[in-house]
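Fill in residues.
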């Protein structure tokens, strides 16, 4: 009874090329090395395709949607830092979203107030610089009285009154 060995076939003259050892002194055969290389290549393909997420989106809309989702997710993660650690135990997704929306609303409200103040200041400076004309004088009088919130129609009527009165 013959036992299986890694040694080359003793009848080496009639031995096919795949059964020969690749180098002298190595007990592996060529088909062993081919199998190991094929297995390594298969593992490499599995790692590239499955572990490293490579996916080509189908459409331009899908690419843009993925980009927007990532932006929203990063903004949401940044906003979650607003919530204190003690509150995080009782917070679920809806409560976190409410807290973030409330914080954004407060921030937007402050920005709008700053913009309105800046616009009012710019309008006052522009109107005061136009005081050379009679219309500018009438507008300056309106500002002095404190009626800045009037609309254009009211300011024009004030202009007509001031021109009739001889300001």
């Amino acid at each position: 009874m013959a036992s299986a060995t890694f040694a080359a076939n003793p009848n080496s003259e009639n031995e096919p090329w795949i059964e020969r050892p690749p180098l002298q002194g190595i007990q592996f055969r060529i088909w062993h090395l081919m199998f190991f290389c094929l297995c390594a290549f298969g593992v490499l393909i599995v790692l590239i395709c499955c572990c490293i997420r490579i996916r080509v989106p189908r459409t331009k809309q899908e690419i843009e949607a993925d980009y927007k989702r990532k932006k929203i997710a990063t903004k949401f993660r940044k906003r979650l830092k607003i919530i204190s650690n003690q509150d995080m135990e009782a917070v679920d997704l809806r409560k976190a979203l409410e807290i973030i929306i409330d914080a954004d609303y407060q921030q937007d409200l402050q920005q709008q107030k700053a913009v309105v103040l800046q616009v009012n200041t710019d309008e006052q400076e522009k109107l005061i610089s136009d005081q050379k004309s009679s219309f500018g004088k009438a507008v300056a009088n309106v500002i002095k009285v404190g009626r800045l919130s009037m609309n254009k129609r009211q300011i024009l009527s004030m202009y007509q009154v001031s021109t009739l009165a001889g300001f």
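The chain has a mean pLDDT of 73.
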